[in-house]
Write a structure and sequence with these properties.
Layout lengths: L1 H20 L4 E3 L12 H14 L11 E3 L4 E3 L2 E3 L3 E4 L6 E3 L5
Antiparallel strand pairs: 1-3, 2-5, 3-4, 5-6
Keywords: Signal
Length: 101
Amino acid sequence: MRKFVTITLFAIMAVSNALATGLQQFDLAVPGTYVREEYKEDLKNWRLSLLRGVGYDAKKISEAIFLKTDIPLKVNGHESIGQVYQNKDIKHQFYILASDM
């Protein structure tokens, strides 16, 4: 019963959120060639300082570094560049930056 109530509440919240914000249509086609930013020294240093600052051991956490690409993303028919990021180590994994397009 508890599981049913949780699923029902989640479904109600998802539907009400979709109705409040409107349904969005995303179109992403990864081209054969595209540009991805470099993993520069300043980003490497920032990452290491962040790990040290919060006291994490890099060997004991899971992390992924996503780098900005020039892959176009269409949201409701409007094209945008700079919202699609690619995992530095897993080339087929992408992250879409949330937007108010």
